[in-house]
Specification:
single chain, 142 residues, alpha/beta, Rossmann fold, five-stranded parallel sheet, 5 helices, 20% strand, globular
Length: 142
């Protein structure tokens, strides 16, 4: 089983869409961590297997994740209007998990060459990457 960690904040709209799209995959466990309770609630409603909120939850869950998904800001301290703390960004960056990041040109982050795709298209591409990564895990259990 592949352990997937979805991290989101600012209401959880992206995280909710990611969790919903990931539900189509087999042999995965989705942990959703919101930087705030609204984000967590949105991802819980979308079908995450387990949810949590806040900095320490990111620090703990990043250790055991096989794949981490979220907006590119989850690896940048003080992004999401300060919701991503330096400790959160460091935990994600240091995690041994593969990171599948959605390009979001907001909050002072501009990703050159990432124009013309909708969020829905980016999510579909992210889910395809997870599908490939989960397949390469060989169904191993953690």
């Amino acid at each position: 089983m592949t352990n997937i960690l979805v991290i989101d904040g600012q209401g959880g709209g992206l995280g909710k869409q990611l969790v919903s799209a990931l539900r189509r995959l087999d042999n995965i466990r989705i942990t959703a961590v919101g930087t705030n309770s609204a984000a967590t609630a949105a991802m819980r409603k979308a079908g995450a297997d387990q949810t949590a909120t806040g900095e320490n939850s990111v620090l703990v869950t990043a250790r055991d994740a096989d794949v981490i998904l979220g907006a590119v800001g989850i690896v940048m301290a003080d992004s999401f209007l300060g919701e991503i703390t330096p400790a959160m960004a460091l935990a994600v960056g240091r995690s041994r998990a593969e990171k599948v990041l959605i390009p979001m040109n907001r909050c002072g982050i501009i990703i050159a060459g990432c124009t013309g795709k909708t969020i829905a298209q980016c999510i579909e591409e992210a889910v395809e990457q997870v599908k490939l990564l989960a397949g390469s895990q060989g169904g191993s259990q953690k």
